[in-house]
Write a structure and sequence with these properties.
alpha+beta, Helix Hairpins, SH3 type barrels, four-stranded antiparallel β-sheet, 7 helices, rod-shaped
Length: 272
């Protein structure tokens, strides 16, 4: 082949493949710009909806990587490179990674759902996954709690959402239930007046719903009163401890016997 024929062949190759290379470069540059624009738009929309910042960054990066992968495949296809096998390899790799990380992916999915639906927030006192404590941090894979005795508990999100969650703070108020027992020989009217007076004098007790004191049970060795009063969630334990002490002291002063210790307290949410 002479020089003119060689140049003609080179020119032909450049004409055919040069256009493909230029088209592939254009597809990559424009596609990358579009991927960034879409990822930034998704971030802005999530930020406007007050989505957790950690989730915003993660989802934004995930969208950008996924879109960029499609752009690269399109650019390679434009060059005439067979991408079918490449896509199959990516799919197989993705499946293998998914199986290996299925526990982590489950925690991630649970974390996303908690951030979106907000069954609790930082600062709430909750009970879930067999533990109870104040929420310190909600992360993509785990939730961090602080117990009343200042222990840190890190719970996988999938375990947290896989069972019932009790949020003691969400409603803002809590009902405190007491059961006080007196002897059969004691004056029930006097005992009721003592309990009602202690509750009525406490400024932490809410007026609505109104507190209640009633005779609830004639037990084997005692006559039992049930007392119910509403307080703010922050005042719950202070009111509970103070009232228990005051009832004991005023029963003693009034000559009213207490046959057995007070029963366990029960907590209920304030339903409007």
């Amino acid at each position: 082949m002479d020089a003119s024929g060689l140049m003609a062949k080179v020119y032909e190759l450049l004409t055919v493949y040069g256009i493909k290379v230029v088209a592939a470069i254009v597809i990559f540059i424009v596609g990358r710009w579009v991927a960034k624009a879409i990822a930034n738009f998704i971030k802005k929309m999530m930020t406007k909806s007050n989505t957790d910042e950690t989730l915003v960054k993660f989802v934004g990066s995930l969208c950008y990587i996924a879109l960029l992968a499609f752009v690269i495949i399109a650019a390679l296809n434009q060059l005439g490179i067979q991408t079918t096998s490449f896509i199959a390899i990516l799919g197989a790799a993705g499946l293998a990674i998914g199986l290996a990380l299925q526990g982590s992916l489950g925690n991630f999915a649970a974390g996303v759902l908690m951030i979106i639906f907000k069954p609790f927030k930082v600062g709430d006192f909750i009970e879930g996954a067999g533990v109870a404590g104040t929420v310190e941090e909600i992360q993509i894979f785990t939730t961090q709690l602080k117990t009343p005795d200042n222990k840190t508990i890190i719970v996988p999100n999938a375990k947290m959402t896989g069972d019932n969650i009790t949020n003691y703070t969400m409603k803002g108020t809590r009902r405190v239930d007491f059961v006080f027992g007196i002897g059969y020989e004691d004056d029930i009217d006097k005992a009721r007046d003592v309990i009602q007076g202690i509750i009525a004098e406490d400024s932490r007790v809410l007026k609505d719903p109104a507190p209640m004191v009633a005779l609830s049970e004639l037990a084997d060795s005692s006559v039992n009163f049930v007392a119910r009063a509403w307080t703010s969630a922050d005042d719950y334990w202070g009111f509970y401890f103070d009232t228990t002490e005051k009832v004991k002291k005023q029963f003693d002063a009034a000559g009213i016997s207490i046959p057995y210790p007070q029963r366990d307290v029960h907590v209920y949410e304030h339903k409007q």
